[in-house]
Amino acid sequence: MSEDSDAPVLDHAYDGIQEYDNPLPGWWRMLFLGTIVFAGFYGLYFHVVGWGRTPGDHYRDALATYDEKRELRDRAELASVTEAELAQRARSREIVEHGHAVFRTRCVACHKEDGSGHIGPNLTDNFQIHGSTRLDIFKTVRGGAPGTSMIAWSEQLPASDVFAVAIYASTLRGKNLPGKAREGQPVGPLEP
Ligand code: HEC
Predict the structure, then answer these.
(1) pLDDT tens sequence across 144-176
(2) What is the pairing mode between strands 9-14 and 17-20?
(3) What local confidence, expressed as pLDDT, does residue 34 receive?
(4) Does residue 164 have its Cβ closer than 6 Å to ligand 1?
(5) pLDDT for 86-125, tens place per residue?
(6) In the structure, what pLDDT confidence band is assigned to residue 192 with cuts at 50, 70 and 90?
(7) Where do the domains of the chain lie, and which CATH numbers do they carry?
(8) Which residues, other chains included, contact 163 with Cβ-Cβ below 8 Å and sequence gap of 6+?
(9) d(CA 179, CA 67)
């Protein structure tokens, strides 16, 4: 207790200890009350009435825009891929090797190292469950087979990987390796 304080001393004493009557300054209390009033308005503005847009709202908007753009891009991509393009790219060693690398890391668990089938069908025989062309193979790899363990790989891999691995899968057809029993419809050789 400093000797030279001129604040009045309060009457109560605890074990002989007394305290000065030193209230917080007026400006401080106004500021404090101000924050309480502000919080009330803030809560009303952003959360009760909903005039204000929270970071969560901005995030949801951005996500919706992203999904929309992605869907458009995916549709454009699907529309632009043709059987002829897939056939032509299947002759590029670089793309087939890229596809093979993706296949080794993502597909062998179900289709086996050589594509002869395990949980998923044998990709080397001339039988196909979904369609018959390279484009059908591409669509199955891209969009998956709903209701089975074959997922939509476009949600896991960049478009270039999906493209390459679908092309690689198409190069397996007709190799007729012994493996999983035939599934689907008999299909002829792929168009050159
Ligand atoms: C978790 C297991 C699993 C993985 C991993 C998997 N597949 Fe499949 N795949 C399946 C199953 C099961 C089917 C059969 C779907 C059906 O019956 O409609 C299938 C079907 C296919 C088909 C269509 C075959 C047909 O006869 O129409 C292709 C092509 C294919 N997968 C390629 C791939 C490629 C390429 C990858 C890697 C990017 C891959 N799969 C990864 C399980 C898998």
Answers:
(1) 999 999 999 998 998 889 999 999 999 999 999
(2) antiparallel
(3) 98
(4) no
(5) 999 999 999 999 999 999 999 999 999 999 999 999 999 9
(6) confident
(7) 9-48 (no CATH), 75-186 (1.10.760.10)
(8) 81, 89, 95, 138
(9) 40
Maximum distance among all Cα pairs of the chain, rounded to whole angstroms: 106
- Each residue of 25-62: pLDDT tens digit? 999 999 999 999 999 999 999 989 989 999 999 999 99
Give CA–CA dist 155/163, Å, rounded: 13
Q: Which of 102, 103, 106, 111 is the best mutation target for the ligand 1 pocket, counting ligand atoms within 8 Å of the beta carbon and taking the most?
A: 111
**Alpha helices per DSSP H over the chain:** 26-42, 55-80, 83-89, 93-106, 108-111, 134-143, 159-172
Shortest-distance atom of ligand 1 to CA 106: 37
Q: Is the CB of 101 under 6 A from ligand 1?
A: no
Contacts of 167 (CB under 8 A, 6+ apart): 86, 89, 90, 95, 96, 99, 134, 138
User: How long a stretch of residues is the chain?
Assistant: 192
Confidence class of residue 79 from pLDDT cuts 50, 70 and 90?
confident
